[in-house]
Amino acid sequence: MNIKMVTVGKLKEKYFKAGIAEYAKRLGAFCKFQIIECQDEKAPESLSEAQDLKVKQIEGERILSKIKDKEFVILLDLRGKELTSEQLAKKIDDLSTYGTSDITFVIGGSLGVSPEVVKRADMSICFGKFTLPHQLMRLVLTEQIYRSFMIINHRTYHK
Ligand SMILES: C[S@@+](CC[C@H](N)C(=O)[O-])C[C@H]1O[C@@H](n2cnc3c(N)ncnc32)[C@H](O)[C@@H]1O
């Protein structure tokens, strides 16, 4: 199973890097895991609606260029569906059982993602109504993917 995370913007903070590296290492026992960073588009603090859309579209093109047709895309979006850890684990397990070996999670930039990325997504999920910074979202998602494999493999990690 190949699990990919496509993200916008750089991971800067050492403490996020360390946490993600730890879960990525653990994930190595269950899947090939990779994180792809797309460059974020510089934008002024206050944007018109058209400028906001333009920034998201430029970032969206960068995101979509990293995704192949065969990949099952799970978008992280505040407007997405809330899942439990067990439901995410079941989704990953079902996809793998029924022949999908490439799952790609997408984390957007500071403005979110373009309509084109929303359209490409096979599923959109939400981690609650709180907006998380993209670097923290990356860490939380990596842990939840690891948790999914613990659940799938009936390990004691998940309580
Ligand atoms: C700083 S947030 C941008 C939020 C943006 N204002 C919006 O309304 O979509 C950056 C990215 O982190 C992810 N994200 C942040 N909080 C999230 C949450 N609670 N659930 C799902 N994804 C989240 C999304 O992928 C989002 O595009």
TrEMBL record:
InterPro entries: Alpha/beta_knot_MTases, RlmH-like, tRNA_m1G_MTases_N. It is an enzyme of class 2 (transferase). Its EC number is 2.1.1.177. It is found in: Cytoplasm. It comes from the Bacteria. It holds the Pfam family SPOUT_MTase. Keywords: Cytoplasm, Methyltransferase, rRNA processing, S-adenosyl-L-methionine, Transferase. GO terms for molecular function: methyltransferase activity. It catalyses: pseudouridine(1915) in 23S rRNA + S-adenosyl-L-methionine = N(3)-methylpseudouridine(1915) in 23S rRNA + S-adenosyl-L-homocysteine + H(+). S-adenosyl-L-methionine binds at residues 76, 108. GO terms for biological process: methylation. Its main location: cytoplasm. PANTHER family: METHYLTRANSFERASE, RIBOSOMAL RNA LARGE SUBUNIT METHYLTRANSFERASE H. Specifically methylates the pseudouridine at position 1915 (m3Psi1915) in 23S rRNA. Homodimer. Belongs to the RNA methyltransferase RlmH family. This is Ribosomal RNA large subunit methyltransferase H.
